[in-house]
Task: structure prediction
Amino acid sequence: MTEREKMLAGQPYDPSDEELVRDRQRARRVLRHYSESREDEPFERTRLLRKLFGSCGEKIVIEPVFHCDYGKNIHVGENFYANFGLVMLDCAEIRIGDNCLVGPHVGFYAATHSVDPKVRLSGLEEAHPIAIGDNCWIGGHAVINPGVVLGDNTVVAAGAVVTRSFPQGNVVLAGVPARVVKEIPVEEP
Result:
């Protein structure tokens, strides 16, 4: 397996691999152009995001400054908005559904390191995918950790640190670590 294949499979991988370094450098170049783009150039910003992301909907807005590792492992749905300071460590896939809002300075961290100091000091890293459903709102300064799955209609309170999955959705999460503080009633059609 290549280091890229290991990375995407959730296995320990070497981030200093030439292909991975090249891909990160490419993403940095696109992000630099994105950060320098003007708000009166929305089509240019959308073009740059389409060039960077694996896939995205037609209506997507991310306020600069935005940072990611690769970009091509990010997939966002239609009608996506992220405020200033978004960080997406997309060493594994980050998938976000339709109609999602992300507050300022939110982190989606698919990347992780071993708790074993010998493995960590070896330079090997790991990554686990993140999946966010439709109609979610992630409040400012929230952190979504590796491997987390959030179901549709989930609200994450500002400052929450989500360390485990809540795939059932229709909940408000808050705290460190995040826990359900409220269920959102589902209206019958």
